[in-house]
Design goal:
The protein is of the alpha+beta class and about 400 residues long. It has nine helices and 21 strands. The strands form seven sheets. The chain has a six-stranded mixed β-sheet with strand order 1-4-8-5-9-20, sandwiched between helices. A four-stranded antiparallel β-sheet has the order 14-16-12-17.
Length: about 400
């Protein structure tokens, strides 16, 4: 078969409106391209209570030798106000050397480039000295419950094992090749709920203002750094994401206030330890009472943990990171920064099965209006993937 053009495949994928949890035709399109290349394709659907069913794709090109995984997602975030887009979000228009559309960089572009690279390798070199699998979900931008996590377990239960994985997330900051993600900080979200006594703002002695108590709690929670960072990770960061008293009146002391937060923690911590530290700080703030003065009883507060913990991880596999770095340098002439910054991705599930890194397009326009990718970046990434595939199998056989 002839080599796949990454821009043409990406345009076809963008035209599939696969907003989470909709498959939108994207997985069917990939299957139609993968099977002629010799892949066996399966599309399991996973379910869970209170979450949408999610269709996923597992494709395997089998051979004797090491097994490389490419992982990604075809689901995309909503376009938002489509009238605000200069080019329609699912039209895949090319203007001035840039391809526009939702998912162009996050991350249908990475998938298109990997398939294009693999098609070139197979055309030029013939069968691989090993196996390649594609682990593609439709749930990365959603709850991430019925996607990669279950897909990996499903494949593992069938006897699949992998030697290394690359996730095609848009890990580059400014230019193709400036960054490789070799790990991620952990993530934990929660809510602090403070209960008080509602009353008139002119008679505070008859009320107990939970907002004042919350200030004490948050001062203790945020007043001191959690750490100064570590060798491979930046400092732990806790960010408030919402404060809500549900109070439209200006002369009423509310009965309750809720503050939501998210903490990104480094390898000084794990989920249990960071939870314990948050509780310790909140208890100290409750005892301090610097703002909530004159109240004899302790602050009445509770903490709710939201979702599951995403653990911190670091990949130490020189054959994987070294081969990818060499491929980047061969194509771009520059050495990438090996980074652990940014948010979480499905690599947090893959790391339990094999070493994993993340490398794809530049993330400048992901989730934005007029998300787009330069056509030149698609070709550059395809060439890097092509060299990486060849180099990784050479290093592992």
């Amino acid at each position: 078969m002839s080599a796949i053009d990454p821009a043409e495949l990406l345009a076809e994928l963008i035209r599939c409106p696969s907003v989470t949890p909709a498959e939108g035709g994207a997985l069917a399109l990939l299957q139609s391209r993968l099977e002629p290349m010799g892949f066996t394709v399966e599309r399991p659907v996973f379910s869970a209570d209170n979450t949408p069913d999610i269709e996923n794709l597992y494709a395997r090109l089998s051979g004797n030798g090491p097994h490389l995984m490419f992982a990604g997602h075809t689901d995309v975030v909503p376009a938002g106000d489509e009238a605000a887009w200069t080019h329609p979000p699912f039209a895949a228009e090319t203007v001035d050397g840039k391809l526009y559309g939702r998912g162009a960089v996050d991350m249908k572009g990475g998938i298109a480039c990997f398939l294009a690279a693999l098609s070139r390798v197979l055309d030029q070199q013939g069968p691989l000295p090993g196996s390649i699998s594609l682990v593609i979900t439709g749930d990365e931008e959603g709850p991430s419950i019925n996607g990669t996590d279950k897909l990996l377990k499903w494949a593992s239960d069938k006897g699949e094992t992998w030697d290394a994985a690359i996730v095609g997330e848009p890990a580059n900051r400014q230019t193709i090749g400036d960054s490789v993600k070799s790990g991620r900080r952990g993530s934990l979200s929660g809510r602090v709920i403070v209960n008080g006594t509602q009353g008139h703002s002119a008679y505070p002695h008859l009320a107990d203002n939970p907002l004042h108590a919350l200030v004490d709690l948050l001062d203790s929670l945020l007043g001191e750094p959690f750490d100064a960072g570590s060798e491979h990770f930046e400092p732990t960061s806790l960010q408030l994401t919402s404060i809500d008293a549900g109070n439209p009146a200006t002369n009423v002391i509310p009965a309750k206030v809720t503050a939501a937060f998210n903490i990104r923690f480094n390898d000084h911590w794990d989920g249990d330890r960071v939870r314990a530290e948050i509780i310790r700080r909140l208890d100290a703030g409750a005892r301090a009472g610097n703002i909530r003065k004159g109240k004899p009883d302790p602050v009445s507060y509770a903490v709710e943990w939201v979702g599951r913990v995403s653990p911190v991880f670091l990949t130490k596999d020189e054959k994987l990171t070294g081969t990818l770095s060499s491929a980047i340098e061969d194509v771009t002439g520059g050495k990438p920064d090996i980074s652990t910054g940014g948010g979480t991705s499905d690599a947090r599930f893959i790391k339990d099965y094999c070493p994993v890194v993340e490398f794809g397009l530049v993330g400048q326009t992901m989730h934005k209006v007029d998300e787009h990718v330069p056509l030149a970046d698609l070709e550059t990434l395809t060439q890097i993937y092509q060299r990486f595939i060849t180099g990784w199998f050479a290093a592992n056989t």
